[in-house]
Design a protein that fits this description.
With about 675 residues, the chain is α+β, with helices and mostly antiparallel strands. Among the domains are: about 60 residues, no CATH class; about 70 residues. It has 25 helices and 33 strands. Strands 26, 27, 28, 29 and 30 form a five-stranded antiparallel beta sheet that branches. Helix 13 runs antiparallel to helix 14 and helix 21 runs antiparallel to helix 22. The longest helix is centred in the C-terminal third of the chain and has 17 residues.
Length: about 675
């Protein structure tokens, strides 16, 4: 039985070849081999993913595993689905750690590919927004690779003129392939580059970061790959059917069973291998030494890329097909930190293999997100896509592999010594860390230090060294409790030892100022005044950050924080409190000008003038009076402080009075200021 899925043709302008109607409108997803002679009937489960097949005198049941558009990056599950009310794909970026989701709508989405903290959305270009030639490097680019971060923010789009049927991604490169050619884009520069390599990248930025190669070419790894799309339109008798990549290797699978191995970042053809199957999915292990192949019939095989063997003719060849073969496989994932570990999905069971030896299966239908630190994270996409707008954290499942479970059981039931021997035989940083933590709990510092060394945990080594210098067992236990995050227990132990200072120090490190204040007040001795002030101010900051100004005032008063008090009074519109604060400050205090400006902003002239005069700024006081139209006060201040600007000030005030037809008031102003000539001129007008 062959399974097909409907698919729109990839746009006009492509060369049409004589094909059947099914081939034109559908894509072949997979083939299910069923024993028997004749299939007489088939029925789908209503709204589900199961089918029933009538073959001869038997009924067979099968599960269909859809090839969803999805990926996993930086604790985020990215998946796409279609809605009946919109023509675009709805792409959800679901942060499983914080249970937040970000929604993007993408037209003509082809695939989703993820790696590290980034995601590539391969789409068809919007014909309504043609790009310029200097942006694309070619006219008529019809597809886009959009680089996004883990919340779906587009970072960098690349327009290409080949159909991205297959997309692979590494920490530095994106590789997109059609059936005839593949395109490479260095979207990030590797951290460990020599100065010479950086200069080369700078000189040939466009050519160095984007290149295209025909699958029949044999690039040498030099700069022979350029962004020339004329290569991509040339046909081939052996099309590409799958690709995969690691940081240093690119693998291209062809329909004939040929596997081509290229180097990265400088693309050069290293080796060609020949297999007896057509690859549907390829995957490299973490050190690029082994290749996993799932063919279109769901058969999983493995190929050692570096093994040297002698063939039937007696010649030495590179590459060996390993003996392991599994059927009905629809997903697999290599461990990120161990080249011999991988997990695979076979029907509705997950198997974990170490050195090609399987562990007992786990019943699940989840798609594997990540395999790292001896833990497998999988997501139940079938369940999520039943209600894609409301993903549930229950659909994210974590599995521990057997060596981690066995190590934990040995430590708990047998003892550290036997567990240490088991971990020695099955080494992994996660297991050594588990042993180190168990040894710390038992205060076995020698074993803990050795285990921390084996898992390269420098902070753990320093912690064990510090414990070794402590004399009291109770003190060591309290430090260990704090190390493991049991802070309440650690604090209680410190207090039992009459070491309130250490309990306060612990809470200081945690930033728990409420508890610091509580400990300072409950102590029998005199509390440190500076620490008390610091605690009051920190709690005041806590309330001020949440705009709870009234609560903040109480703590700032006790913390004697006049700057933040002024801010709180101003936000509360408590101008009486602000005035009292200004009166309590000594002369020429640095806060007085700021308080004066607060009064100016709300039109309180008298209080502002008082504050300015207290910090010896009569000019600012006069300017404030002028700004607030308190001319009498301004003239009085200018006269009292013998300011040179009194003449111009009188003229401005007189003009102000004359505009209001208050001529007699203007004459009186000049007379009081002893400007008799100006007063006389106004009288005789």
């Amino acid at each position: 039985m062959a399974l097909y899925v409907s698919r729109e043709p990839f746009g006009a302008g492509q060369r049409a070849e004589p094909r059947s109607p099914i081939a034109d409108l559908h894509a072949h997803l997979g083939t299910l081999k069923v024993p028997g002679k004749q299939m007489s009937a088939l029925s789908w489960e209503g709204g589900g993913l199961k089918i029933a097949l009538a073959v001869d005198s038997f009924i067979y049941f099968a599960n269909i595993r859809p090839d969803y558009k999805w990926g996993y990056c930086s604790n985020t599950v990215v998946y796409a689905y279609t809605r009946p009310d919109r023509p675009e794909y709805c792409v959800i970026f679901w942060d499983t750690k914080n249970n937040e989701k970000y929604v993007k709508y993408v037209k003509s989405l082809i695939s989703i590919t993820t790696c590290g903290d980034f995601c590539i959305l391969a789409t068809k270009a919007d014909e309504n927004h043609p790009q310029e030639e200097n942006e694309m490097g070619t006219f008529g680019a019809t597809f886009v690779l959009v680089l996004c971060n883990s919340i779906g923010t587009p970072l960098d789009p690349k327009y290409i003129d080949i159909v991205p049927l297959f997309v692979a991604m590494t920490k530095t490169h994106v590789i997109a392939a059609s059936k005839e050619a593949f395109y490479t884009w260095q979207y990030r520069v590797a951290k460990k580059l020599t100065a010479l390599e950086i200069n080369q990248i700078t000189r040939s930025r466009k050519e160095g970061r984007e290149r295209i190669y025909h699958v029949d070419d044999t690039p040498s790894g030099s700069v022979d790959g350029v962004l020339d799309y004329s290569k991509a339109i040339q046909g081939t008798r052996d099309p590409i059917c799958a690709i995969t990549a690691s940081d240093k290797t690119l693998i291209v699978g062809r329909e004939s069973g040929t596997i081509q191995r290229y180097s990265l970042p400088n693309v050069g053809l290293i080796q060609k291998y020949s297999l007896n199957c057509r690859a549907y999915q390829l995957s490299l292990n973490c050190n690029s030494s082994r290749l996993a192949i799932i063919d279109i019939s769901g058969v999983l095989t493995f190929f050692d890329l570096d093994a040297r063997v002698t063939d039937s003719t007696g010649q030495q060849v590179i590459g060996e097909l390993l003996k392991l073969e599994r059927k009905d496989v629809w997903d697999m994932k290599w461990a990120k930190d161990n080249p011999d570990l991988f997990a695979m999905m076979e029907k509705t069971r997950m198997y974990v293999f170490r050195n090609l030896d399987p562990e007992e299966p786990i019943q699940t239908s989840g798609y594997i997100c990540n395999f790292e630190d001896l833990e497998i994270k999988s997501v139940l996409l079938d369940e999520i896509l039943k209600n894609p707008e409301h993903p549930n954290k229950d659909y994210i499942i974590n599995f521990e592999i057997r060596s981690l479970r066995d190590s934990r059981a040995l430590i708990e039931k047998v003892g550290i010594e036997d567990a240490s021997q088991f971990i020695e035989d099955n080494p992994h940083p996660r297991l050594w860390r588990l042993l180190a933590e168990a040894a710390l709990q038992n205060l076995d510092l020698h074993t803990a230090e050795q285990a921390f060394v084996r898992c390269k945990d420098y902070q753990g080594i320093k912690f064990v060294k510090r414990l070794g210098h402590l004399q009291s067992e109770s003190m060591k236990q309290a430090e260990v409790a704090a190390y493991f995050g049991r802070f309440e227990e650690a604090e209680r132990m410190y207090l039992d030892m009459d070491r309130r200072d250490l309990a306060i120090g612990l809470r200081l490190k945690l930033g728990d100022w409420f508890r610091v204040l509580q400990l300072l007040k409950t102590g029998s001795g005199d509390a440190d005044d500076s620490l008390l002030e610091q605690a009051h101010n920190a709690i005041g900051d806590y309330f001020a950050d949440r705009q709870k100004w009234l609560n903040a005032v109480q703590y700032y008063v006790q913390g004697r924080n006049q700057e933040r008090l002024a801010e709180c009074y101003y936000m509360l519109e408590d101008y009486e409190g602000l005035e009292n604060l200004a009166n309590s400050l000594p002369e020429n205090h640095k806060l007085l000008p700021e308080i004066a400006q607060m009064f100016v902003r709300v039109g309180m002239c008298e209080q502002a003038v008082t504050a300015f005069l207290k910090c010896n700024q009569p000019k600012a006081a006069v300017d404030t009076c002028v700004h607030l139209n308190q001319w009498n006060k301004a003239v009085e201040l200018a006269k009292n402080h013998s300011m040179k600007e009194i003449g111009s000030l009188l003229a401005r005030y007189a003009s102000h009075l004359l505009e209001k037809n208050k001529t007699l008031d203007a004459i009186e102003l000049y007379r009081k200021a002893n400007y008799f000539y100006d007063a006389a001129k106004l009288m005789f007008k």
